[in-house]
Inverse folding.
């Protein structure tokens, strides 16, 4: 399939090719290949330490990770050269496993600036701004912002008091995840990565957050759900399920594959895969 | 005859001339001379003095400073800040180079015995009060070299007296505007709250950035009688060639409550003391400080929470944002005397460095002379902007400079929020944003 480069009608794709990345000199990703098209939901499963969260951070451009090989294309642009803010303005969203708290900055104030930034977008052909330059972007009329915010808060059943609270400061685990999904709903990305959004949530919180994700899903949004457990997939049905192990995607399948993984456990699955590999060699 | 404005340096002739020019009662003249004698007896601090170890005064050229001069013509506009024109105030006092150019006080407060006026007028009209409280029990001339100089050469300032049991809801507002172009500003603030009274007072110290170095030595005396309650805010936004020396001290009587809040934006060098002396049982003090430094600004302050009575509470929070090659020194002491039973005293100093060349030193100290206390703690941090916070905000589309600005604004927000006057709060926010705008965390 062609990517959307130069063709505005082509579907937006995130294409990861032979991606290798390390942190502090240690290689974590060892040749990841993955393509997600908007409208699709992919689940990335795998045991702890397999590189799932590293992949999420590398896609978003966390400065701690060094990409040593491969490429990531989004909308036909090699995003590895771009800072995190440009990737975000281009339409990629990461819902964090452990979102930072930012004391003194209210969710409302932050969201407003984020929405304005997202609306500005990113033009790869624009001349690079010098370091430290503040963007000159169009402000969003307060009434318009308020309307959008109210609409999204209703959709996600988020309490009104959220917006005046400081970002993630004193939030419960469930509130943090809901705040992430609210941000996603406000920013309307084309590619969303949900990094262990289910971790630390009880069944009720998981249901609420999942409903939120489902409310935001649509034909324009590609989703990558990163999870250790399949239970979130009871609520958010994936089109494709991948299993990652030792920095590679080792097996992919349909919705039912997740149930299989869950039933079998990673250990047996990986054992079987390694035996297959040994047999073919 | 030589023009008196040409006089430079703080000398005996200068103090004599100042006294001759001012129609003050004999007791004040005597005090000025006493203060001058004290000034001469105290040596200029050097880096061998503990309190001055981190501030070098060798470049301070007091002999070049005009100790007093003619009042510079004002622009003619009101000194009331634009944003506060519509604001209701209990009283407003605007001083331009020591001369009261704007003044008003609510009539109903006058009727209740509230006194709010410039100090020079107060010396004439309320001599008994000034004689009792001015640089006597709170900040005497013997307090230090610059307090002594202030006692001899003080020019003007604000005086507020609230009588027993009177609560003033609206704020008193003072603007001290000075030229500080090779000249001195010696502004004094004296606030006396009688038993059970209550007031809010905010003042700004402003000057344009002048050509020549200016010199300021400010003294703020806050005296709270039993059960009194004061929120004081002092905002220093002198021009960038000013050397500023200041003392803000509050004396707290039994069951009195103060919030003493300082904001420092301006000057090249600022050296000061912010102190709460808890003299009566059950007194409570909140000391709040906010400072923003860039370029080569050097701010050095010493704070004291002095517990001399039982069941006192003091809570200090000083936060600073330091960038470029600026330097901040915070040195804070909590002292609990043997009389300070059931004391609770807390101190926090937090510094955010935006550049590798900025520096902040934080030196907390405890002197606990009483073993029956509720709690006593101090904390100090000096750190860069958190990379994870930056990444988080950038992941939502904000560039590094925007993210830095938002984090800095959030960092100082609790101190801005504490300012009781909304338009002043907004003005401080705008100033902070403008100062941080376009700076990337290094």
């Amino acid at each position: 399939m062609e990517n959307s480069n130069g063709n505005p009608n082509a579907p937006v794709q995130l294409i990861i090719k032979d991606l290798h990345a390390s942190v502090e000199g240690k290689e974590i990703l060892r040749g990841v290949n993955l393509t997600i098209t908007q409208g699709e939901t992919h689940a990335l499963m795998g045991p702890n330490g397999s590189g799932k969260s590293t992949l999420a951070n590398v896609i978003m451009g966390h400065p701690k990770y060094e990409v040593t090989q491969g490429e990531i294309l989004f909308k036909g642009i090699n995003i590895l050269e771009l800072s995190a803010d440009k990737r975000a303005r281009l339409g990629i969203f990461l819902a964090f496993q452990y979102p930072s708290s930012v004391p003194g900055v209210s969710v409302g104030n932050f969201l407003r600036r984020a929405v304005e930034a997202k609306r500005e977008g990113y033009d790869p052909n624009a001349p690079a701004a010098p370091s430290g330059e503040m963007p000159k972007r169009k402000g969003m009329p307060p009434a318009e912002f308020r309307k959008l915010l109210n609409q999204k808060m209703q959709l996600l059943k988020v309490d009104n008091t959220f917006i005046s609270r400081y970002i993630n400061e004193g939030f419960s685990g469930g509130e943090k995840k809901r705040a992430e999904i609210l941000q996603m709903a406000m920013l309307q990305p084309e590619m969303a990565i949900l990094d262990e959004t289910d971790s630390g949530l009880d069944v009720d919180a998981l249901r609420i957050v999942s409903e939120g994700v489902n409310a935001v899903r649509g034909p324009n949004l590609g989703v990558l759900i990163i999870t250790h457990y399949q239970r979130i997939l009871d609520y958010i049905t994936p089109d494709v399920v991948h299993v990652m192990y030792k920095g590679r995607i080792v097996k992919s399948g349909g919705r039912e594959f997740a149930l299989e993984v869950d039933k079998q456990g990673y250990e047996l699955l990986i054992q079987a895969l390694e035996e297959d590999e040994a047999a073919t060699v | 005859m030589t023009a008196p404005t040409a006089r430079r340096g703080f000398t005996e002739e200068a103090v004599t001339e100042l006294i001759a020019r001012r129609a003050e009662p004999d007791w004040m003249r005597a005090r000025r001379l006493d203060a001058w004698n004290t000034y001469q007896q105290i040596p200029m601090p050097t880096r061998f003095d503990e309190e001055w170890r981190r501030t070098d005064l060798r470049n301070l050229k007091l002999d070049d400073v005009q100790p007093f001069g003619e009042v510079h013509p004002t622009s003619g506009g009101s000194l009331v800040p634009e944003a506060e024109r519509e604001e209701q105030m209990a009283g407003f006092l605007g001083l331009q180079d020591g001369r009261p150019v704007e003044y008003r006080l609510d009539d109903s407060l006058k009727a209740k015995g509230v006194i709010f006026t410039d100090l020079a007028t107060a010396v004439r009209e309320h001599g008994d009060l000034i004689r009792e409280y001015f640089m006597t029990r709170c900040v005497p001339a013997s307090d230090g070299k610059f307090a002594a100089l202030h006692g001899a050469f003080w020019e003007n300032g604000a005086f507020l007296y609230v009588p027993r049991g009177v609560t003033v809801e609206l704020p008193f507002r003072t603007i001290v505007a000075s030229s500080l172009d090779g000249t001195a500003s010696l502004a004094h603030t004296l606030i006396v709250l009688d038993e059970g009274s209550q007031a809010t007072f905010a003042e700004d110290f402003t000057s344009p950035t002048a050509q020549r170095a200016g010199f300021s030595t400010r003294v703020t005396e806050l005296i709270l009688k039993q059960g009194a309650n004061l929120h004081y805010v002092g905002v220093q936004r002198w021009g960038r060639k000013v050397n500023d020396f200041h003392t803000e001290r509050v004396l707290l009587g039994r069951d009195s409550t103060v919030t003493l809040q300082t904001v420092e934006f301006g000057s090249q060098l600022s050296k000061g003391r912010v102190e709460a002396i808890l003299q009566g049982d059950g007194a409570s003090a909140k000391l709040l400080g906010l400072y923003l430094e860039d370029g080569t600004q050097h701010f050095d302050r010493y704070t004291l929470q002095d517990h001399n009575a039982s069941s006192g509470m003091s809570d200090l929070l000083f936060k600073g944002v330091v960038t470029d090659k600026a330097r901040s020194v915070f040195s804070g002491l909590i002292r609990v005397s043997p009389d300070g039973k059931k004391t609770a005293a807390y101190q926090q100093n937090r510094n955010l460095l935006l550049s590798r060349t900025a520096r902040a030193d934080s030196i907390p100290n405890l002197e606990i002379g009483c073993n029956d206390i509720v709690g006593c703690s101090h904390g100090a941090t000096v750190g860069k902007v958190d990379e994870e916070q930056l990444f988080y905000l950038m992941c939502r589309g904000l560039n590094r400079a925007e993210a830095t600005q938002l984090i800095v604004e959030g960092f100082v927000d609790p101190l801005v929020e504490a300012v009781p006057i909304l338009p002043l709060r907004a003005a401080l926010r705008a100033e902070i944003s403008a100062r941080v705008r376009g700076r990337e965390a290094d």
